[in-house]
């Protein structure tokens, strides 16, 4: 039997990259998926590829509270109460701390951190109607170790918020966990000069390679499914051994 049969999932930032990989695997495993993103063209194309019976694209600003309410309402109208939320949307500015403006910093905070808070609040009521649910917050290895200012701060915050929300929502049958990927071979980074830098860095990863998006999706699938029914408030690392060094 498919591992997500009968479940309704919302995945943010899912028009491309890791989010699209999550959506494709979820549908393959029987879920009905609401794909959200600001990229309307790619998001709508992915939803069409997955089929109208399986997927719905909703253009969403994840920093808008009303936007979140609209997404949940559309999910319930199309597929029913929400069982799974994957807070995948995120950005990073790879700037030296003294070159990072307050506007830059707050943009990262709002998209990477505030959106997770808003998403958790928005789906809780729907998950109660569904009889429980699973929230998967995509953090990063930079939620465990240092990296770029702004990005690291917010990914640590997501890790902490995950634990706090897990305690709050456990009585409602809602589990909350965080995923901490290492370097992922998404189209955005595997091109041009950046590709060469990533390939050079991969030599220092214990497994000697970067991850494919599908490898992270398998972990997200596990946390979304009932197979992880006793896991909540925890962080799950998939980094090829980087943080073990």
TrEMBL record:
Sorted UniProt keywords: Oxidoreductase
Pfam families membership: adh_short_C2
Source taxon at top rank: Bacteria
Matches recorded under Gene3D superfamilies: NAD(P)-binding Rossmann-like Domain
Keyword Lipid biosynthesis part of the UniProt annotation: no
Recorded GO MF terms: oxidoreductase activity
A Gene Ontology biological process term: bile acid metabolic process
Keyword flag Oxidoreductase: yes
Entries under PANTHER family matching the protein: DEHYDROGENASES, SHORT CHAIN, ESTRADIOL 17-BETA-DEHYDROGENASE 8-RELATED
Family: Belongs to the short-chain dehydrogenases/reductases (SDR) family.
Protein name: 3-alpha-hydroxysteroid dehydrogenase
Species in which this protein is naturally found: Caryophanon latum
């Amino acid at each position: 039997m498919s591992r997500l049969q009968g479940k309704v999932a919302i995945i943010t930032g899912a028009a491309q990259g890791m989010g699209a990989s999550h959506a494709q695997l979820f549908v393959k495993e029987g879920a009905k998926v609401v794909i959200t993103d600001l990229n309307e063209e790619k998001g709508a194309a992915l939803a069409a590829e997955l089929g109208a019976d399986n997927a719905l694209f909703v253009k969403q600003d994840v920093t808008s509270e009303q936007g979140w309410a609209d997404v949940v309402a559309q999910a319930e109208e199309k597929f029913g109460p929400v069982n799974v939320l994957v807070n995948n949307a995120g950005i990073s500015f790879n700037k030296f701390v003294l070159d990072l403006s307050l506007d830059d910093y707050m943009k990262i905070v709002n998209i990477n951190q505030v959106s997770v808070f808003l998403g958790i609040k928005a789906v809780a009521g729907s998950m109660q109607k569904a009889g429980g649910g699973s929230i998967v917050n995509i953090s990063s290895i930079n939620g465990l170790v240092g990296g770029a200012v702004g990005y690291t701060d917010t990914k640590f915050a997501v890790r902490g918020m995950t634990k706090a929300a897990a305690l709050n929502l456990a009585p409602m049958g809602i589990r909350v966990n965080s995923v901490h990927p290492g370097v992922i071979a998404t189209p955005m980074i595997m091109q041009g000069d950046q590709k060469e830098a990533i390939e050079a860095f991969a030599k220092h990863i214990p497994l000697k390679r970067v991850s494919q998006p599908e490898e992270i999706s398998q972990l997200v699938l596990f946390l979304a499914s009932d197979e992880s029914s006793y896991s909540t408030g925890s962080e799950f690392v998939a980094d090829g051994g980087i943080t073990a060094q």
